[in-house]
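Structure, all two chains, one model.
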Amino acid sequence: MPLKMTFGKSQKAKLDIRSTVTQGSLTNRQGAGSLRTILVLGLATAVLAGCQTSSSSSSSSSMPSMPSPSSSPSSPSTPSMPSSSPSMPSTSSSSSSGSPSFPTASSSSSASSSSSSSSSSSSQSQQGGQQSSQQSGQTASTSGGFESSPRSGTDGQDSGNTGFENAGSTGTDGSTAQNGSQAGSQSNGGFDQAGGQNNGGFDTAGNNGDGQNSGSFEGSQTAGQGNGDDPFADLSDGRGQVMTASERRAALDARLDEGFAEFDGMILGERERVQAQADDAGSGVMSGGGSGSGNGGDVGQPGGPLVIASGPQTRGGGIIVPPTANGRQGDFETTQEETFPVPDDIPPGANDDVVARQLREAAMREPDPELREKLWDEYRAYTGIGQ
Amino acid sequence: MYRLYRYLLILTLLAGAAGCATQTVKSTTFTPIVEDGSPVVEEELLDIGIGIFQPGLDDVPRNREELTFSDVRMAETYFASYQLAQALQNSGNWGVVRVVPGRLESVDLAITGTILQSDGETMRLQVHVQDSTGMTWIDKEYEEVVSKYSYDPRMRRSEDAFQGLFNKIANDLLAYKQRNISADDAVNIRTVSKIQFARDFAPQVFDEYLAENRNGILEVKRLPAQNDPILNRIENIRERDFLYVDALQDYYSNFVRQMETPYTEFRRMSYDEVMKMDRLAADARRNMIMGVAAIIGGLAATQSNNAAAYYSSPVILASGGWLIKDAFDKGDERALHVEALAELGNSLEMELAPQTIELEERTITLSGSVEAQYEQWREILADIYSNEIGEATSSEQ
């Protein structure tokens, strides 16, 4: 309040100035205080704004990695993601203060339902037990997980980090993470269930697939003498994908049937060949007792004729047996061969012994006339005709 | 005088003893095959597998070495095995009777044997019969001595000269079965042989189905399910195995048919030769003994005071010398027969050796191909089993 002072103008000016200064100083004092306050508030706001800015940037970077099942986790806040489940969704961790729309009971329930559906799909995929089923299971679990994880990630951001970390770290055993908020815990529990089941399911599927594959490969390796190669690796050639168990069994059965057909052909071919040989050799020919030794066959005496039915033998002017196609000649030739007429002086051979009968048959079948005449001469000499 | 009588008595006794040693009685009795009168149910019929007999060349008696020809003996192993199979098959008392080389574990009854002696006159076989459980039925030696009438064309039947021997074995087998094997035993034997076959192809599946008791006898612990897919596959394999064995029978049948004529003739001639050899050997032995005795007696007579003994000593000495000379002559004659027999044997060897080699080559080739195929099937079965086990594990989880 300006002082009314009766001073002079100078004094009045001085007073005015003084009052102005006072007022300015007073104003200054008041401005300085407000300025201080403003500065403090500004700093606080800046700090808070900086925090908000960092949290919003991390959530936006994790979003594009959702469709990729094999993407590695990009969030630095999830260092404990299991390596055995590379396709596990790299869900985001969210700060509880960043987003006002954190999971509610409904959203958490939806997340848990989606996670349970993903877990059921992963459990269904477990039954395939092969790598393809692994992949499908992985895909299902991944997609289910990815489907659920954003919700849980976005809806459960208040304790998502912790919950996801817990899920990631305890995914294999499916233990539930402990969180402060019920929603977060529910979402985390749901996610844990999803994660746990996914992990467990995936691990199971993976283990099953690996076990089955190793078992089957073991079997084939064992069958393949442990050389590490699958002798039936060509069963899936051209298919472009790994076979299921039933398909493999069907392929093995088909190979077994092929082996049967090949075996049958081999055996039947052998039997036909043997039968043809038997027919050529004259299986109906009875050549028993085809020896020409007869009465004079005392081999103990030098010069005695020795004839074995197997081939031509001659000794000391004895019997000459002409060779046949197989080198043997029997008594009872039943094959249809050309016979030549018997000379007139030769009687019927009803009383012939073995040697005489052989001589007669040989002579009758001999195409060479000179040799045939010699044989008849031998027959006459042996039987005493004309003596 | 008494000394003379004593010398003559000694000589007479010696001559009589030598003569008695050569007395041989041959029987022409033929052993017919015995058929089981009661019909046998299909499930109780036992199949028989006969392994190729062993040649027994290591067990040939010393006095028969010159009568034994290795190639002929090798051919005889196939011949004897096949003839025994024919005898058993024709009896109608058994199921399928086949000559099976190698594996006999999965056959109901397995017969193995060794040819101990085989010439035209005598055949001796050591026969061992065992069922699939490991129980021994028969383990004894069989011998047959034939007479010359077995080779007489007028009296000879269409059968082998030693058919009686094979019939005797078949009859003993039937007798054992009738005495000791019940219907349940027969079914058990068939089951064991079936599981044995399955175990050979899928040991990981069927190893636990059989167990050996403390007596070494296999017992069935578990029975496979009728609809066991692995067992059904193995049944198909077993049918192929039967086909393979039947193909081998064709080989053996052809071989026996080809060798039968020369082999039969060889046996007939070798019978004659063996008879003459034995007779000459006996005569030589007798003459040698008498000759030595006569010389001893003659020498003793020269020292005698008896005039009759003294003056008869040169005669006795001359007789002794002549007997000894005759013994040597008979020995030489026997050697001629040995040479003739050797020539016969060599001739037969030359004919049979190529056929035997061809048979062995074919058998080995076919068996090798079959075994290779079997090995593939074993791998496939193992893989199928692993596949099924893996499926079962995953479904349980």
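Chain B touches chain A through 58 residues (CB under 8 Å).
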